[in-house]
What does this fold into?
Amino acid sequence: MLGDRTVLTAKKITEFLKESGDRFQKTIVFCVDEEHAARMRQALVNENADLVADNHCLLPARTARPCPKSRVRTKPSSMDSPTRFR
It folds into this structure.
């Protein structure tokens, strides 16, 4: 069961992203623990059901299946270099 505060937060995040014109913007949501993160993810999926239906990409982080309509880079960038952190 999703808490009222979690649902309200997901609604506010979704409203903000809709108003920005790009709902695929990078967004960081801080959660108390993994259980809260799972509830927040579900609340965001519920609020953005149209994107989930179109993209099928909002899978749990532990899911190993690739996204069929991937928006992920296929070529490594200079940011992926192991020397970046040296």
About this structure: Residues 4-85 form one domain. The radius of gyration is 15 Å. The helical segments are 4-20, 34-47, 49-55. The chain has one domain: 4-85.
